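User: My notes are a mess, but here's the protein and S-adenosylmethionine's SMILES. Can you give me a structure?
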Amino acid sequence: MVTRPPEHEIVDERARPVLDRLHAQDAAERAAGLPQEERIRALTPATGAFLYAALLALRPPLIFEAGSAVGYSTIWLALAARTYGGRVIGSEVRPERVAAANANLTEAGLQEVATVLRGDAADLVRQFDGIGFLFLDAEKDDYGRLFLAGIDRVVPGGLIVADNVISHDCREYQALVRSRPDVYTVTLAFERGLEWTIKRW
Ligand SMILES: C[S@@+](CC[C@H](N)C(=O)[O-])C[C@H]1O[C@@H](n2cnc3c(N)ncnc32)[C@H](O)[C@@H]1O
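Assistant: No problem, the inputs look usable. Here's the predicted complex:
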């Protein structure tokens, strides 16, 4: 049997207990069978570690996240951004989750790197420019709208990643990105499925 090293080994001492706590919360909520709207629906740790690794290579100065929940994914993005001086803007519609996400970022020592804003990601993304990495992790049937709101804000060569494209039916979104000549897209069968879309030069 192949044993995998734990992905959390790569993160620092302050962020690690926060990531572990939020991952445990997510697992407990799933095990209890809570309805979707009551769960934090965090990334898998392997997905967080994979995005972290991609960001170390790409080094986008500005990262925008659509759908931060309580900040589990935001912490992974911020850990990577901190290594090269980037910053992360998260977004979340539910005010109690915005507060929790920012408290979790502070507890993880990442409040200088990342902030989660309250509101619809489609409205918020339009307030920024020069986005090098756009991460879509809000409602799956809303990915198309969020992509269309953000694509003009993404720099040429920028990356747009949507999570859950295998665990959920995201065919409409996948057809949208495949229909556009200004992007190149590939579906990565990793964990819950990542749609990996590059804005062409
Ligand atoms: C799958 S969870 C995000 C999980 C988070 N990315 C993580 O891995 O920790 C989706 C979140 O998106 C939020 N959301 C839904 N629609 C949104 C929108 N239009 N703009 C911003 N947030 C939204 C939901 O309230 C929910 O907390």
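The chain has a mean pLDDT of 95.
User: Great, I'll file this with my notes.
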